[in-house]
Amino acid sequence: MLSAAAVVLVAGGAAAALLLVQGEGDKDDTGSAEVAASQSAPKAEKSPSASGSPSTKASKKPKPDKSVLPSGPSGPATPTQAPNPAPPAASSEPAAPKAPAPVTYSAIRMTASHDLYLADTPVRPKADTGSSDEDLTYAVYSSGAVLAPGTTSGSSLALLPAGRQGGVEACKGATGYKSYIWIKDLTAGQQMCVLSGTGHVGLVTYQGSSGTTYATLDVKVWRDAV
Prior knowledge:
Blueprint: E1 4-11, E2 14-21, E3 36-39, E4 103-111, E5 114-116, E6 126-127, E7 136-141, E8 144-148, E9 156-159, H1 168-172, E10 177-178, E11 181-182, E12 191-195, E13 201-210, E14 214-222
Antiparallel strand pairs: 1-2, 2-3, 4-14, 5-6, 5-7, 7-8, 8-11, 9-10, 9-12, 12-13, 13-14
């Protein structure tokens, strides 16, 4: 009766199977056990995985923190084109109105209780109406004759210094308005400004007088100038 024993040997990674067949009693070497051995080729030793051994594990460099990286040298600045300057905005302020052309009336003879109205065309003496609505009146008193503005018309009268030549702007900016001016205090060529209550400007030039009988005046008028 034959018995078979299978012995599997594993040594150093090599496997051998040995089959021993024994007969009854002793046999010589030629009848010794028939050995059938099958040996498989040694398997290649697996390399340790990258995660197996610390010594063979590839060292990974930590990613640098961008917040601590030194900034590289900056390149040349990109030239920028300056925007075209905006055109100056048109002034919103209205232009100053031009003074109207003046009209001159010469050698006006003023007698007692006669008045002038700058709105008249032409400007000429008118007998006093008793309403005091005139722009300028010539009145005679026992102590002399005077020129005075109307009291109800809103007109005003200012005397310019002797030798000073007036104009529309000088009259509009005149100060020292008077309620009357004595004729005897005037010199030939001296000027007065009359501003009417209706917006007209008059420059009155005194040319002389004959006592209290009359006074001669030149009047230049800028209508609707104020």
